[in-house]
Amino acid sequence: MDQRRSLGTRGELAAAAYLTEQGVHILMRNYRCRMGEIDLIAREGDCLLVIEVKTRYAHRQGIPAEAVDLRKQNKICRTFDYFRMRYHINDSTPVRFDVIEVDRKLNCHWIRNAFDYQGII
After folding, report:
1. In percent, how much of the chain has pLDDT > 90?
2. Residue 91: which domain range?
3. CB within 8 Å of 96: residues ≥ 6 apart
4. Of 98, 17, 5, 91, whose CA–CA distance to 50 is shortest?
5. Residue 99: its H or E element
6. How does pLDDT run across 88-117, given as a tens digit for each residue?
7. What whole-number distance in Å separates Cα of residue 27 and Cα of residue 41?
8. 42: which of 76, 99, 104, 116 lies 20 to 30 Å off by Cα?
9. What parts of the chain have a pLDDT lower than 70?
10. Residue 107: inside a domain, yes or no?
11. Cα distances (Å, whole numbers) of residue 36 to 45, 62, 81, 108
């Protein structure tokens, strides 16, 4: 496994642990389908959370959340649409799209409502 992938995996594990400490129930890690991948799918109360984890060793590459541009948001939403269909998630279920930034020391910064749903409900 290359160093970048290893850092990303450690970041996702740190984010999942952080969310669990915050009382969030992790439902799925690394959900993959033909549409794409969602790093974490979780539940906080009645709300379903779709979470993109961005880990950076240094800010030379920019602030991690900046990497979740409109193109990436669209891909996450299309992947979520497939997940919703596959697991029969009711359209009235509240859903939130969050980003967690993780630094090289595995500190987490949780951005709730990082972006709005990009698609058709």
Report:
1. 69
2. 3-113
3. 44, 47, 48, 49, 50, 112, 113
4. 98
5. strand 95-102
6. 999 899 999 999 999 888 999 999 999 999
7. 6
8. 104
9. 1-5, 57-66, 120-121
10. yes
11. 26, 23, 11, 24
